[in-house]
Specification:
2 copies of one chain form a homodimer. Chain A has 8 helices and 3 strands. Chain A is mainly α. The interface between A and B is large, with 63 and 63 residues. The structure holds a DNA duplex.
Chain lengths: ~150, ~150
DNA sequence: GGAATTAACATAGTGTGCTATATAACGCAT
DNA sequence: ATGCGTTATATAGCACACTATGTTAATTCC
C-alpha cells in the first residue's frame, strides 16, 4: 500500500458527529447505569420514569412512541420491569389488544433519586461548558434528532 | 397524589444532555446499521476501520483503549469479525499473551463505502446546522467525552 | 530463580437495541 | 355478519454494551 492509499484510507473520527455522539452516549450510559444500579434501576427504565412519573398510565404503544424505540425493545424492557416490580400492566378496558402500564409505588418512590442522578451526571458532563454553550448543545441535539427521526 | 407532587415528579427530558445524547446516538446507530448492513458490516466495526484502515496491526488491548469500550466487549466484537472474515488475529511474537489484529483484504476493500456511509449520514443529521454550529457541536462533544472519560 | 503480582485475553451472564415474524383483537366494507 | 386488512403485543434471534470472573503469560520482588 502506497502512502497515497494510506492517506485515502484514513478518517478523523473526532470530526464525525455520529461517532462522537455514540462515544458520548456510551460514557453517559455507563456512568448512569453505575449510579442507577444501587437503586435497582438502569438507563432503559428512564423513559418510563419520564412518561409515567406523574402517576399516570399509558399503553405500550404510547410508551414506544414516547421513547422512540422499536416495539419489541419496549416489550422486553417492560417485561423486565414487571418482573422486578417496577411497573403494573393491566388490560385496557376499551381495547382487548392493549395493555395500560403504570409505575408501581416501589418505582415512584425512587423518582427523587433518579432525578438527582440525572442532574448530577449532567452537571459532571457539562461542567466545562458555559450556559450558552449548554443551550447551543441541546439545541443542536434537538435538530439532529429531528433530522434523523423522520421516516 | 396532589398537583404539587405531580409537578415534583416531572422532568423535561429535552433539557437533559444525557437523555438527548442517547436519543441522537440511537438514531445515528439505527440508520448507520441500516446503511452498513448491505456491506456485511455494522456500527461496532467502525472503530476497527478507524484504527486499522491504514493496513496496520494493533493488539486487542490497544484497540480496546482506542475504541474506549470494555475489554470483553472488544473480544466479542473481534470474534464476530473474525468469524465473518473481516479481521486476522495472529500471536504477538514479543508477548505470548497478546494478539495482533489487522483488517483482511475483504474488510479493506469495503473502506471507501464505509467512509461514504459515514459522510452521507453525518450530512443528513447535520443538514440543519450551519458551519459554526457544527464545529461548536463537535467541540462540546469533545469536552463532554473528556469530562466523562476520566477515571 | 521462584513466588507473588500484574497484565492480556477469554468466558459467563445480563440489559438494551435492532429486524423479522407470529398472534389476536379491532374495524371497515361488502 | 363475515371476511379481510390493520393494529397492539409477543416471540425468536442477533449485535453490542456492561460486570464479574477465570486462565495464562509476563513482570516484579525478594
Amino acid at each position: 500500500m502506497t502512502d497515497k492509499d494510506s492517506k485515502l484510507y484514513n478518517i478523523d473520527r473526532t470530526a464525525s458527529a455520529g461517532y462522537m455522539t455514540n462515544w458520548a452516549a456510551r460514557l453517559f450510559a455507563r456512568e448512569m447505569d453505575r449510579r442507577l444500579k444501587p437503586l435497582g434501576l438502569s438507563t432503559g427504565h428512564l423513559p418510563m420514569f419520564f412518561a409515567l412519573g406523574n402517576g399516570g398510565a399509558l399503553s405500550q404503544k404510547a410508551l414506544t412512541e414516547f421513547a422512540a424505540i422499536e416495539q419489541p425493545t419496549m416489550a422486553a424492557t417492560l417485561s423486565r420491569m414487571e418482573r422486578d416490580g417496577l411497573i403494573h400492566r393491566e388490560p385496557d378496558p376499551d381495547d382487548g389488544r392493549s395493555m395500560l402500564i403504570s409505575l408501581t409505588p416501589l418505582a415512584l418512590e425512587k423518582f427523587p433519586a433518579v432525578r438527582e442522578a440525572i442532574d448530577m451526571l449532567n452537571e459532571k458532563a457539562l461542567g466545562a461548558l458555559g450556559e450558552d454553550e449548554r443551550n447551543a448543545f441541546l439545541a443542536s441535539l434537538a435538530k439532529i434528532v429531528a433530522a434523523l427521526a423522520d421516516e
